[in-house]
Amino acid sequence: MAPKNLHAILKLAVKMSEQLILDVDLYLGFNGTNHIDLRRSRVLQYRDAKGVILLDILPQSQCISAARYCSTLDRLKEAIRRKRPGLLRKGVVLQHDNATPHSANLTQQWLQRYGWEILPHPAHSPDLAPSDFHLFGPLKRHLGGMAFETEDDLISELRNWFDNLDVDFFRVGINSLLSRWQKCIDLHGDYVEKPLGELGSIVTGGDSKANVHITNALIPLSGKNSVIGRGLAVHEKKDDSGQRGDKKSLKSGNAVPRLACVVIGRSKSTK
């Protein structure tokens, strides 16, 4: 849910036009296949409206402590100095969540020392995080079907993909935050977009209606196995079928509360 001070956040976001906005994309993983495994290697990616500024590769299974995160921020500061001359003097606005390494005293001291501002981000709000609503979908579609023999192969493919993206891709992702925040205000703090795991998303409107956007190319919309006309139960999170091993997951798959029951139809854009 969105915080009560959304108007203040929206006012702060206007600084995007004159200051550097960095978006933190956490935890693209690797496990020897094309699947993403959050428990293995991690890539911390930072970008602004002009493109990627830093990819910080963590060794396999290394945890991100506050000290390690501050080390990444040191690398980020140097990367900004090299790639965006003069922007450090104008001021940096950093977007990240309230994960323990981000909220730790050591990290807060680092941010205060260099005068970096934190763009407030409501907890559990992927619909307001550019990484979730703009980046991960295209990236997953690009990596779909690929297999990597080594971690270096995956990292190389990631770098190539980011390097070949048009600058408009980054600009649209960052700038769309403004309209999404405004829509969240219009919806009185409700989700602008509810994630459907690998399927796509459910987008709500002010008229209390919702549209399910299926973005996974593996979901058949035509032919004998078409899902058109079938019922779909929409849950708050993806069902991981107990794979994480914790008691709650083994019992319910962590799908958590059901958001809606819908019948899959076809929009004009999919005909």
Automatic annotation (TrEMBL):
One of its GO terms (molecular function) is metal ion binding. It comes from the Eukaryota. Gene3D superfamilies: Ribonuclease H-like superfamily/Ribonuclease H (3.30.420.10), Superoxide dismutase, copper/zinc binding domain (2.60.40.200). GO terms for biological process: superoxide metabolic process. Residues 188-264 form the Superoxide dismutase copper/zinc binding domain. This is Superoxide dismutase [Cu-Zn].
